[in-house]
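Hypothesis: this fold can be encoded by more than one sequence.
Test: take the C-alpha cells below, design a sequence, compare later.
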C-alpha cells in the first residue's frame, strides 16, 4: 500500500483509509504532511486505483492537533508570514476534497484542533470516538480561524455557537458535538474504525457517480438561492439519469434483487 510523507493510505474493497501519520506530535500539520495529503489525493483521484469511498483518520491517540508550531514548515512560517501556507497548500487540498468523485468519511479519534478540526469537518459523514473533542485553538496563539472553519462552522452549528467556539476556545466533547449537529455519530473508541470501515464499504458498493453528485448538491446549496438550487438539481438529475448505475438500479428494483453498482 502506498505511503506518502507523514500520510498512509490503505485500500481494500474500494475504500481508501487515509491516515495522518505523525503520532509523535498528535499528527500536527506540517508542510511535509500537507504535501503527503496532496500525493494521497492524487492516488485517490486516479480512477485506475478503484477508490469509491475515503476514510480520513489519525494515527495514535489524536486525529490532528492543528499546525505543528514546533517545526519550521507551518502556516505561521516566517518565510512567508502567517497564513502563507494556506494558499499554497491548505486551500488546494480543501478544494479538492470538496469536489472529490466519491464520499468522504472522517473517523475522529481524540483531539481535532485548529486546522485539524477543519479537516475533520470536511467529511460528508463525520464519525467520532467518545474520547474525541473539537477545539478552535487559534485564539490561544493570537490567530484567526482558518482552513475553511469560518465557512463550515456557522453552516453546521449556527453563528452563535461558531462564535462561542472561536472566541472562547473551549473544548467541545464528542457527545456535545453530536447534540449540536456538528457530527453524525459517536462510537466507543475501540469500535470507531470498525464502524467507519463498515459504513465506507457500504458507500463504496453504492452508485458512486450519484453519491458524488449528492455530496456536490449539498456542498453548493448554502451558496445558492432556492431557484438556483432547483436548477442545479435538474441539471444534476439529468447526469445521474444517464448513468449505468441508474439503469442497474431500476433493473434490480424490477427484478426484485440487490443492485450491483459499478460506480459508472
Amino acid at each position: 500500500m502506498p505511503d506518502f510523507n507523514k500520510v498512509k493510505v490503505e485500500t481494500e474493497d474500494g475504500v481508501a483509509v487515509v491516515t495522518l501519520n505523525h503520532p509523535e506530535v498528535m499528527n500536527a500539520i506540517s508542510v511535509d504532511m500537507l504535501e503527503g495529503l496532496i500525493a494521497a489525493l492524487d492516488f485517490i483521484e486516479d480512477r485506475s486505483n478503484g477508490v469509491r469511498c475515503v476514510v480520513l483518520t489519525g494515527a495514535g491517540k489524536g486525529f490532528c492537533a492543528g499546525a505543528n508550531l514546533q517545526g519550521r514548515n507551518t502556516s505561521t512560517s516566517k518565510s512567508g508570514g502567517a497564513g502563507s501556507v494556506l494558499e499554497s497548500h491548505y486551500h488546494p487540498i480543501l478544494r479538492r476534497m470538496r469536489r472529490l468523485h466519491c464520499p468522504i468519511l472522517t473517523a475522529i479519534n481524540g483531539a481535532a484542533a485548529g486546522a485539524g478540526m477543519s479537516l475533520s469537518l470536511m467529511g460528508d459523514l463525520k464519525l467520532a470516538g467518545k474520547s474525541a473533542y473539537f477545539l478552535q485553538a487559534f485564539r490561544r496563539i493570537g490567530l484567526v480561524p482558518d482552513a475553511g472553519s469560518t465557512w463550515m462552522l456557522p453552516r453546521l452549528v449556527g453563528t452563535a455557537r461558531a462564535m462561542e467556539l472561536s472566541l472562547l476556545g473551549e473544548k467541545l466533547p464528542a457527545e456535545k458535538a453530536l447534540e449540536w449537529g456538528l457530527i453524525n455519530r459517536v462510537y466507543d473508541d475501540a469500535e470507531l474504525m470498525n464502524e467507519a470501515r463498515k459504513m465506507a464499504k457500504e458507500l463504496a458498493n453504492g452508485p458512486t457517480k450519484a453519491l458524488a453528485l449528492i455530496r456536490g448538491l449539498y456542498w453548493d446549496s448554502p451558496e445558492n438561492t432556492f431557484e438556483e438550487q432547483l436548477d442545479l438539481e435538474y441539471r444534476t438529475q439529468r447526469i445521474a439519469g444517464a448513468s449505468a448505475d441508474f439503469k442497474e438500479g431500476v433493473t434490480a428494483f424490477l427484478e426484485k434483487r440487490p443492485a450491483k453498482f459499478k460506480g459508472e
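The chain has ten helices and ten strands. The two ends are 25 Å apart (CA to CA).
Hypothesis status: open.
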